[in-house]
């Protein structure tokens, strides 16, 4: 009551909230947000406009990166991730589509933060607050497929999760995409309002890349794409693209507007092959804990108990008992306390504490915590657990170094099953292959074997690490043997002539407080049939070989043909039938927005408005940021 009478009550409360939030800034990165640096980025020479954007990113600004197809947006995002990660920042790499996410080595935005696929204001929708607290930077690619209300919701949820009034709660957000490519479609006008019309978008430095990287100046394909991008139909150029399909159809990709048509052609082409069919069913790994924990205390409650004590009470008692037993211990983070109901006939629980290294806890000294110095002596954690058990009316039965599977509640497996979002639903489907079938790699495996590489299955043979893509080698081979995943693997001759055997990859699911830090891995082959795809599926990819489009069944959709035609490097790759002027359209609002963006090669962009917000991580690295600005 005394606090409420103070004139500065809101200032004091805000300061207290920010103080409490500071306890969360070192929370773990959920496994699904882990990204690997693309080896092809090292040594990449950036264009002047890419270099300018990278400098802005290093200074902590929220940035929107636009630009036409082939201007190096993906390369730039990978370079930004590499640079910021090297600075020790926690960067989540996401995209609105699975294809684009794979291209970057990340996951979809919806999967990363449990963002609802459809916004429904009539009922609460739970974002993953832990993930929002854990990151310093969020990269989102293909934002033309993200609407205004979704960006505003992201802004609000991040502020709430991080207890901060700063835009996105102090997270640095880097958006990338071309609004003259495919955009969100929906029955409600609010659902289709473009992202650049959102309130949160005002907090971004907005610019576009202008240096072509995929096509040389004067390239006839670049001329065609420039016209399509602005909604201009060139009959003469499309007449040139109306040509016969080559006799050798081995490396032809068909592009369709609808998923049904693409699927039917893939299945028909596979059925035409007379060879034996091989079916690869993705394997699920066992439950595994993510992180390092104290031994797990198995606590039995009285027979008359009908429920466990509240989590808040147990966490409070844990903190008190740890400080009682060991006053020099660092305060335990609430998120690191695991209170899990045990699967027994009566009420019982398993209790453990997550910590950042292999020591039990860090020791606190007057000058701060000593990392790696154990504060708890042997037996003290058991004493803490016994004291907590008594205070909640239970008894400590025993300590487990590893929790027995029969005690882990079924809710863990059920929650993991529910986490199979669009990121994992595709890879969980059985993969049907035959000798001679055309396939596409759908993950970045090495410098030369990447998402979008196409080839033909030449054989099925026992795993041979000498045939794995460079950089995968013996580790994946031992994983195969240890987990007995697949007895044979497909051998693929790529369009480049390289022959590789394609090993399974691992896709993590779980590992969050929601699953008590349990996760399991799914092991699919990073392959798919490669005869045909939808335009939406190839947005963001560069296709190899001949690309054929029969536009007779193309529906009216702004930018559809532009996206389809911009997937190749050369006009010689394109064969296009039945194009009509009505099929080439552009959203005028998107065109006006794109034309109004500052060109990134202009040094003036390096001096954003003084009131443009910056990420909260810049406060921790102020000296480095000031040096960049000098």
From TrEMBL:
Subunit structure: Monomer.
Reactions this protein catalyses: ATP + H2O = ADP + phosphate + H(+)
Name under which the protein is recorded: ATP-dependent DNA helicase
Tagged with keyword Nucleotide-binding: yes
GO molecular function terms listed in the Swiss-Prot or TrEMBL record: 5'-3' DNA helicase activity; ATP binding; hydrolase activity
Matching Pfam families: PIF1 (PF05970)
Species: Angomonas deanei
EC identifiers of the protein: 5.6.2.3
Entry-linked InterPro entries: AAA+_ATPase (IPR003593), DNA_helicase_pif1-like_DEAD (IPR010285), P-loop_NTPase (IPR027417), PIF1_helicase (IPR051055)
Keywords associated with the record: ATP-binding, DNA damage, DNA recombination, DNA repair, Helicase, Hydrolase, Nucleotide-binding
